[in-house]
Amino acid sequence: MEFYIGFDRALEIISSQEFLLPSEFASLFDSYGRVLRENLIADRDDPPAPVSAMDGYGVKKEDIKSIPAKLKVVGEVPAGKIPNIKVSKGEAVKLFTGSLVPEGVDTVVPVEETEGSGEFVVIKKSYPQGQNVRLRGENYKVGDILVEEGAVLRAPEVGIAASIGKPYLRVSSKPRVGIITTGNEILEPWDDLDSISQIHNTNAYTLYSLVKESGGEPIYLGILKDSKDETAERIHKGIETCDVLITTGGVSMGDYDFVKQVVKELGIEVLFYKVRVKPGKPVLFGKRGSKFFFGLPGFPVSTVVSFNLFVLPLLRKIQGARELFRKRVKAKLLMDFKRRKAERREFVRAELINKDGKFLVKPLRKQGSGVLTSLVGGKVLMMVPEGIREIKFGSEVEVVLI
Ligand SMILES: Nc1nc2c(c(=O)[nH]1)N[C@H]1C(S)=C(S)[C@@H](COP(=O)(O)OP(=O)(O)OC[C@H]3O[C@@H](n4cnc5c(N)ncnc54)[C@H](O)[C@@H]3O)O[C@H]1N2
Ligand code: MOO
């Protein structure tokens, strides 16, 4: 077991796990967030022929060089119809957004810049040649690889699959991810809290959402009370039935922190315990055969951050994803940043601002590991490297998008 390791080493251990889940076919309705296990290749050009990008009139550019220009309307081409019209000098054709552009037309004038309907149309504004005509192959050309194997499917990728006529996609099967939360003080959101010593379970539900977002199938296994026998039984069941088991809480120094002990007794090999990161220090990563175990710290922020830092890359890896980590961007720091201790790499919750295409980042005041409100509304994590105590206003910093 490696103990209290650096962040990069932890990622190295996670990304070197070789297990790959089998692939399966998923419908377009069930492919969001999953990892693609085939290339998506264009079966034809898109658009397959020039089409109008506006409702208006198809004309020849040379006829609208001087305006107003009065042109003879020779017919119309509704979307979905093959044009049987040819447009000659002095003529126009009525087109709709998505209509195929007939022979002779090189430019489309939007209807708002025209007057009259029926036999003649008056064009009031000139347009450059080719304006409002979407050329054949503008989106993609036949044979192009549109989405590569290993991509995480989001809305645009699912849309591309649909556009090339694939109702089913080869994707990774969903990792079954068991979720157990621990603590005598934890009650479910539907339970009444009778005492100020009790709190509602937050972690089960942040994790459930994060697992779904990561292409996994969350399996909620409930709250564990701080008893060693129960912990052993539940973790055993979880690791038997799931690909990845996550527990939260019970991994630090407390007298009731049974998770660590139980994991060893169940034959789960601990690959690392504790990483020099803040928050998320007492994270435990283990494996038994092709099953993986994460013991995440119990504080709600530590749970969410350590999922993003450690669990997501593993889930992506076993699904065959190309990119394992959250995206990072460079941003300019909007205030002086100071901290007392510099032993751990810190992931500081912050607000990301996009000003004229440049990212600015503003750390939030409250950074406690229990302050989940500090992550509400789309926050980011500003990375403060080990050994750094102070970063000056205006410096460039790296930011993790979560
Ligand atoms: N003496 C030391 N104490 C602590 C250390 C240390 O190094 N030495 N590390 C601290 C750090 S850092 C963290 S992070 C926490 C991790 O503690 P645990 O993983 O054992 O978590 P718990 O003690 O069970 O809970 C921590 C905190 O979070 C609340 N919690 C737990 N589960 C839930 C849940 N499902 N929903 C909402 N809130 C939850 C719990 O009530 C505690 O307040 O340890 C430090 N201590
Ligand atoms: O590492 Mo703990 O996660 O600072 O709160």
TrEMBL record:
Start and end residues of each MoaB/Mog domain: 178-317
One of the record's GO molecular function terms: molybdopterin molybdotransferase activity
Protein name: Molybdopterin molybdenumtransferase
Reactions performed catalytically: adenylyl-molybdopterin + molybdate = Mo-molybdopterin + AMP + H(+)
GO CC annotation terms, alphabetical: cytosol
PANTHER family registered for this protein in UniProt: GEPHYRIN (PTHR10192:SF5), MOLYBDOPTERIN BIOSYNTHESIS PROTEIN (PTHR10192)
Keywords: Magnesium, Membrane, Metal-binding, Molybdenum, Molybdenum cofactor biosynthesis, Transferase, Transmembrane, Transmembrane helix
Organism listed in the record: Balnearium lithotrophicum
GO biological process, any: Mo-molybdopterin cofactor biosynthetic process
Pathway: Cofactor biosynthesis; molybdopterin biosynthesis
Record's function text: Catalyzes the insertion of molybdate into adenylated molybdopterin with the concomitant release of AMP.
